[in-house]
From TrEMBL:
Lineage start: unclassified sequences, metagenomes, ecological metagenomes
InterPro entries membership: Gln_synth/guanido_kin_cat_dom, Gln_synth_cat_dom
Protein name: GS catalytic domain-containing protein
GS catalytic domain mapped to chain residues: 116-454
Molecular function as annotated in GO: glutamine synthetase activity
UniProt key word Ligase: yes
SMART domains assigned to the protein according to its UniProt record, in alphabetical order: Gln-synt_C (SM01230)
PANTHER family referenced in this protein's UniProt entry, alphabetically: GAMMA-GLUTAMYLPUTRESCINE SYNTHETASE, TYPE-1 GLUTAMINE SYNTHETASE 2
The keyword Ligase is annotated on this UniProt entry: yes
Keywords: Ligase
Length: 454
């Protein structure tokens, strides 16, 4: 091992590499990390490293949570140990700087109790015990503005200028006019090791949609986390700004983070395929049954912010209850028929603001429970799913707010069985905190409605 490490470090020196970047995803999917010198990298590769565990105990504004036992003032904020995943190495395009993904570790278990990446590995292991490997890919919608981190603050996040005007989904005119940016982003993602299958304009001023190429196991979530972070980097280096908020304006549709997946059996065959064209085999039915049964309980894993719930409304291209249909984009779960390799399920619940590790863990965890319990789904929705919502059982409807959804998840014995008590307690607490933070502020709607009249 030492000779292999020595050879690797010498290869870096011979190539002129002087430092690398390491990054780990926090509970919100935000990548936290640092640049490190080669001498430090050698130590990290040999022994692992530590981050102040506040990165697991604060929100997106670096404000410390006021609850929990894993981390907090009462613990003194010791280092949380992590391992460097050397097989995730890729090079940041144009910088000659290697990048590594890290994962938090626990001394007593193969799975860290609250690390999002470890949470997904736990679920993938469960699927593996059932004889299946996930093959999946994310697709994201995101708005791009002719703004900078400084200008959006100076403007108070108002009157932002999109890169293009008007509603023009799938526009070849817009895409080819901006071909430098389109080609540039696709090249950047390919060189960085998270290639895009497609990239196009969506409906709304300055909104694009990117579909990442499918991959097996945890790689899909790794690539999605990198895509979200480094798409922002790509545009900020151009003097522009990309956002993955679920809904930045009530004037436009929300921004989705859909998750496409199938399961491969031990021979590598698609377990969702059927000998009959468009047929739905038992495994796929059980998976749909699991999604229907459990994802309403685990909604915060797919809709983790207060803003998420402004997207989950009727008629806004986002589901409001657990439903499924064949090639039906009004349903929460869309079964997509095709030839043997391509037949799969699309989870349309998640927004672009979701942590990809947790969105995948929720989806695949529910799928695993469906297979284990052989849960049969209710009949597929035909036509407009929104119109059929009122006759659905209450347990299939999504909670209307983050606070309600988090409270519901906290009561889910199934969530505790799949993700562990420690994770559920911590994660639910972080979502209650997020709701509390929003309740502390007066927003524009309240001012417009009440300031003069009430």
């Amino acid at each position: 091992v030492n000779s292999s490490l020595d050879a690797r470090m010498q290869a870096y020196r011979d190539a002129g590499v002087q430092q690398v970047v390491i990054g780990l995803a926090d509970i919100d999917g935000v990548i936290r990390g640092k640049f490190v010198d080669l001498s430090k990298l050698e130590s990290l590769m040999a022994h692992g490293g530590g981050f102040c565990d506040c990165v697991l105990g604060w929100d997106v504004d670096d404000q410390l949570y006021d609850h929990g036992t894993y981390t907090g003032w009462q613990t003194g904020f010791p280092d949380a140990q992590y391992r460097l995943l050397t097989d995730t190495e890729r090079t940041i395009p144009g910088e000659h700087t290697p990048y590594f993904i890290g994962e938090f570790v626990d001394d007593t278990s193969d799975f860290h109790p609250i690390c999002p990446r470890s949470c997904l590995r736990r679920v993938l292991t469960r699927l593996g015990d059932l004889g299946y490997t996930a093959r999946s890919g994310f697709e994201y919608e995101f708005f791009i503005f002719k703004e900078t981190p400084q200008s959006i603050r100076e403007k108070g996040y108002r009157d932002l200028t999109p890169v293009t005007p008007g509603n023009f989904g799938y526009s070849v005119l817009r895409a080819t006019t901006q071909s430098e940016a389109f080609n540039g982003l696709m090249d950047y993602c390919r060189e960085f090791g998270f290639p895009l299958e497609g990239l196009h304009c969506e409906t709304g001023p300055g909104v694009w949609e990117a579909a990442l190429a499918a991959s097996e196991g945890i790689e899909a979530a790794d690539q999605a986390a990198l895509f979200k972070n480094f798409t922002k980097v790509y545009f900020q280096k151009r003097g522009e700004l990309a956002t993955f908020m679920a809904k930045w304006s009530m004037d436009y549709p929300g921004q989705s983070g859909h998750y496409h997946f199938s399961l491969l059996d031990a021979e590598g065959r698609n377990a969702f395929s059927s000998e009959q064209p468009g047929g739905i085999p038992d495994v796929a039915r059980y998976v749909l049954g699991g999604l229907m049964r459990y994802l309403p309980e685990w909604l915060p894993l797919l809709a983790p912010t207060v803003n998420s719930f402004t997207r989950l409304v009727r008629g806004a291209w986002a589901p409001t209850a657990a439903s499924w249909g064949v090639e039906n984009r009004t349903a929460a779960f869309r079964f997509i028929p095709g030839d043997a390799p391509r037949q799969h399920v699309e989870n349309r619940v998640g927004g672009a603001d979701g942590n990809p590790y947790l969105a995948a863990a929720a989806t695949l965890g529910a799928a695993a429970r469906g297979i284990e319990e052989k849960i049969e789904p209710i009949a597929a929705v035909v036509g407009n799913a929104y119109e059929q919502e009122d006759v659905m059982e209450s347990e299939r409807r999504f909670s209307p707010t983050l606070r309600d959804a988090a409270t519901r998840m906290g009561k889910s014995n199934a969530a505790r069985g799949v993700f562990g008590d420690a994770f559920v307690e911590h994660f639910v607490g972080t979502r209650i905190w997020e709701a509390q933070e929003s309740e502390r502020f007066v927003n524009d709607w309240q001012l417009n409605r009440y300031l003069e009249i009430i």
